Amino acid sequence: MIVCIIMCGGLFGLGWAAPAAAESLRIGEPLCHAVSGTVAAEGAEPPAFSCSGEPAGYQQGTLWLHAMLSPEAGTVDGERDDLSLIIHNSRFDRLIVTFFYADGAVERQDVRSGDFGTHWRAGGQLAFRAPHRDVPLVGVTMQFDKLASARLLRMRLVERGEESTQTTGLATLIGAALVLLLAGAIYNASLAFAARRQFSAWQSAWAVCMVAWGACWSQLHLFFFPAMAGAISAQICTGLSCLAIALATLTAVTALEAPCVSRWLRRSALGLTGSVFALGIPLSFMRSGPIDTLGSVLGMLVLANLVAVGACIAQAWRRGSAEARNFAGAWAVPMMVLGSTSFFDADSMFWGGGSQILVLFAAAWQTLWLSVTATRSHALLRAERDLARQAEARAQDLARRDALTGLPNRRGFIERVGAVLAASRTRGEPVALLVIDVDWFKSINDAFGHEAGDVVLERIARCIAPHESATCTVARLGGEEFAMMLAGMAGFDLMRFAESLRQRIAEQEHGAVIRGRKVTVSIGMATTSGGADFRTLYRLADEALYEAKRAGRNQVAIRLLEGAEPFADDQHLTGGPDLPGGHDLDLRKG
């Protein structure tokens, strides 16, 4: 956007600085005209010239325009400087330019629709360079065959060096504007595809249409399609401009929320757009007839359409639409540009680019502004989506965790152990399931209350929670029952781990909550190196747990599945010697 502002500023600065040697030629100022009702033959002399009034009846014939030049034309500080005649392209079949010199010499150059040769220039212009001679240029005549409208003609006489500078600068500005529009079109198309936004799709289509119009108007397309020179390009430009207006209106109307714009105002804008399109498309095919009148009507419809869209934006803004504020900034510049050209003559300004170059840069401004706002809106939506996903993930995690202890609950545990079992089968690692049950927990609740029981469970969970890792999954299965799934541990290491866990829980201090009473756990463990499923491991671990309970509690009992690493005959796990119920437990294969 900053680039566009800088370039627009440079455009205005360069446009207002008209070269001193440039001279605009207009009918009657100082052009005289002559008309033939039929196309004049090659080398035919024009009828008598008239230097007043407007020419008429030339659309099916030939129009001559003649200008007498002062002897000082083409001189700078007394030195000769050859002149170039710049003519803004329009709809005609053939154009012959004749230069007259003081010594009676005559030089002719001509172009025809479909073949501009080397005379075309960026900005929809044709350049005819008067050949250098030592005598002054005293006159120039332009002969148009089947010209569509004399009112659309713009002509200037400039110095040869100035012509090169102007056409190069104008081509640079047009290229920059087209690049900005093309970048906006590609970006909005990708945004429409990624975000599924109808507004971005319409905006991309509008930017593509403006790129096509700009390339066609400026004649840059003649690099690739020289046969399109002349009338066909002018007709395509008219059709593309009407299509661009329709797409711009649809972009705005579809982006504004329905409750923020009254139905009659929305329909008015769409109706005016339809009228512009309905009149503009037939007008683009016309080569004769009331082109000037219909063109004036079309211009009024375009202004009315812009006013209607502006009213939609204003009403939506007043009703709190965020999109309306974005469109206000985007549409303000194009509307001011189109409105301002009605109050001053821009045709001879901006190196001959006229109001078209203003429209092109206003379009670049609009697509950049809307691209920036669309990006901002999309970023906000993505941020909201990410927050929603994070909240959903937190909610799912909470649904899989025990509210009291913070450990995974039964549902979360079962989901996680599946991955642990699959990884252990792939790597051929042993896996063990420990089921941990608090001894005499009901008596704690009965004697000290459920709040005291909850404190005991929380403190036991704090002993278990640090072991949670990629190879160890822990959980509170419910009530006073906990569980652990370990991968990669077997034999004596597994026995030592289970016994140390039992001892650490037994040594946990609960203080005055249960009046210094010790709390122990019984652990049932099932281990295998094969491909056992969770149900099998849980059944065997549960059986081992009940065996530890029957043996007096505060003990570890182990069941081995087929394929598990056997324990040595002299390896036993015992309960704590200072705790009731501790005794040796023989390890038997399950």
Helix content, binned percent = 40-55%
Question: Shape, please?
Answer: rod-shaped
Largest sheet: 10 strands, mixed
Query: Low-confidence parts lasting 5 or more residues at pLDDT below 50?
Result: 1-21, 568-574, 576-590
Question: What is the alpha-carbon Rg in Å?
Answer: 44 Å
Task: Describe this protein with a few key phrases.
590 residues; alpha+beta; ten-stranded mixed sheet; five-stranded mixed sheet; disordered N terminus; disordered C terminus
Describe this structure in words.
The chain has 590 residues and is α+β, with helices and mostly antiparallel strands. Helix content is 49%, strand content 18%. The chain has 13 helices and 19 strands. It has a 10-stranded mixed beta sheet with strand order 8-7-11-3-2-1-12-6-10-9, covered by helices on one side. α2 runs antiparallel to α3, α2 packs parallel to α8 (354-399) and α6 packs antiparallel against α7 (322-340). It is rod-shaped.
